[in-house]
Amino acid sequence: MTVITLALTAIGALFLAVVQDADGFGGTLWKSFIHILDAGTITGDDAGGPSMVVMFITTIGGLVILSSLVGVLTTGLDAKLEELRKGRSLVVEKDHTVVLGWSDQVFIVISELVEANESEKRAVIAILADRDKVEMEDEIRTKIADLKSTRVVCRTGDPADPDSIGLVNPSQAKSVIILTSAEEDPDAQLVRSLLAVTQGGNGIKCHVVGAVAEGRNLPAARLAGGRAAHIVDANDLMARLMVQTCRQSGLSVVYTDLLDFGGDEIYMVEEPGLFSRPLSQALHSYRTSSFLGVLTKEGRCIINPPTSASLQPGDKLILLAADDSAIVLDGSRPVIDESVIVARADAGNRPERTLILGWNAMSRTILEQLDQYVAPGSVTDVVTDHPDAPEAIRKIGPTMRVQGLNFKEDDTTDRVLLESLNPGSYNHIIALCSDDVAPQLADSKTLVTLLHLRDMAQRSNSRFKVVSEMADDRNRTLAQVTQADDFIVSDKLISLLLTQTAENPHLSQVFGQLFSPEGSEIYLKPAEHYVRPGVPVNFYTVAESARRRGETAFGYRVAALAKQAPNYGVHLNPDKGLQFMLQPGDKIIVLAED
After folding, report:
1. What SS3 state is found at 555?
2. Residue 536: cis peptide before it, omega within 30 degrees of 0
3. CASTOR/POLLUX/SYM8 ion channel conserved domain: from which residue to which, for each copy (predicted)?
4. Spatial separation of the C-alpha atoms in residues 282 and 269, rounded to whole Å
5. Cβ neighbours of 419 (radius 10 Å)
């Protein structure tokens, strides 16, 4: 366009110089150029004859050139905008978090990362999914109103294609999170994505986290991910949590608080001032942080270690704190009131009766985990109309070592059936969402079952200890009216766990130990087993009482507030210097082996 403009200017000036040589060639050149740029210039011409004809033709040529220029610019801009809309440009960020895939988990992950990055001035999340870039951005803006200091960048591509993954610049990222796919075989998609990330030539140096839906695919996923990958078994973890929660109310609230970034978080801190000193001193050296364990210099996490052991150089303390800035070594002597400490042993395990209403992929693991916790002589009854349940129960039954297993095929929403089961005679009731129907329908059936149980409890003036699973976290609010003890939302907790592990890979060991039946786990034990109820006490004293029992205390639960959201009476990592009063029925949250 520039060459054509200059050529037309020269030709117009040449003809004008021939017919009118008054201004010389330089003047005619300028006059021709002005007529090309501005068509209105011709109205000011006072010359007539051949000069007017030359300027008129030059002006017409200028109009064609300017029109063509506008068309070229518009077409080019439209093409560039369309290219950007396709989300195929390279992300040039560094130290960002890469999220591969798209599901309902993505909104939980983004929300948690926004909380985690709140102290950073310029945090970035790069999402790669096989969806339209603009649609992803619009949906994120709809679901998450305030991104604070975090910027979300979306790209369109196959999360299992190395070339597409290269668009989000994983080689410069601090972590990669692979979401569970909505495909029929999500584990196959996970393995493909792991291979594409770690073996696709993108130069990955960060850690990669993901979750398999079926435990039998865990070895393959870990092999595909290599050393950089931290892969968890989603169904296994949720089944373990379901079993632990059904046996002690409030545990799901504790785990949710530990897993999200909204409250207290777990940090690994090196404290040279405590090297070669017993861990009992570390237990009481932080007023606003709670000691949980030790990360050895070899990279091994030890939860609830013996307090007689000493902290070695290179070891790190595992602490629970509101923020890393709140971790301050307190050199003052802790105030421990010996007069309120009591030493009461826990009651031994007795045979238990458990009722499971519903069936899904976790059910087999739930039964296997229950068999490791309950005392000999315990019985578990399973009631469901799930088509896969009869055959599965037939195979599981002979493997039960401790508990008896009974099965009844029926509709769990049937009031007559529920009354015939006499739910008040069970120690624990677990209501599961069936996976043979859509999630919303499964939640609806679970809500009907819970409402029947609540009405039966009110009519008989009794209380059933019920733990329920929700497929969709949005239905948890609706389920509160059923007054169940706890609600487990599997996708949410798995998303929280993946986000925590992405920020700190050592946490995969910590939570792996907490969910396992071996070693120390989280328990909510009667407060009267530690201190005298109805007496003012500080948490230094509670922690010391727990230490003498070989346990680590890091919170308490007030029974009177057990039904009040959002904490449901749970107080983690309290200020150890402040006094409070515990009543009969309150619980101390501890790490213990049984």
Report:
1. strand
2. no
3. 236-327
4. 12
5. 13
